[in-house]
Task: structure prediction
Amino acid sequence: MSEPLIKLEEVDFSYGPERPVLVGCSLSLEPGQRVGLIGANGSGKSTLLRLIVGLIRPSAGRIEAFGKPRTREADFHEVRRRAGLLFQDADDQLFCPTVAEDVAFGPLNLGKPRDEVRRIVARTLQGLGLAGYEDRITYKLSGGEKRLVCLATVLAMEPDVLLLDEPAAGLDEQVEARVVEILAGLPQAMLIVSHDRRFLERVATGTLRLAGGRLEAASVV
Result:
């Protein structure tokens, strides 16, 4: 049996004494799994993704990623290189003037040569139907276009794990179908937060519900 890529054991997290979010939450993500995460607004789905990459820290429990325990800030540097996080709000992810600059930012920070980065940007945008968007101003894009560019910034990093927070939000039916095709064809393990159960039915290999601070098996039907 393969070692989990991501493992949470009895994790607690609270935004304050009056706002417990996760209580004894456990999770195991295996290679090749595409796991949908569902749950009510405020149940902690986005919080869970942020914990995995170390943007916030649990008050109790254990986080392992890629075979190692992760506790200190330095521990999460590798995790952020290998786990691509798609934020729920596109404006939290896009900060460069143009689309090409935003998509190139991650690969450049990994130390890839500029010629290779240009090829990665072109290939990634082409795959998402965004060829010709290289010089578009990001803040002038529509909500759906921003969503696709955010996904492009994540895929350009070629991560081992994808952590996707509402990847289908704001997409029209045709573009959503393209995103489904792309995600279903990728080899990476994924955790996919979505309120769109039809989307999860087409992408996820299994589904978990977050309720009462814990994860439980769920059906998207």
Remarks:
- Residues 114-127 form the longest helix (14 residues).
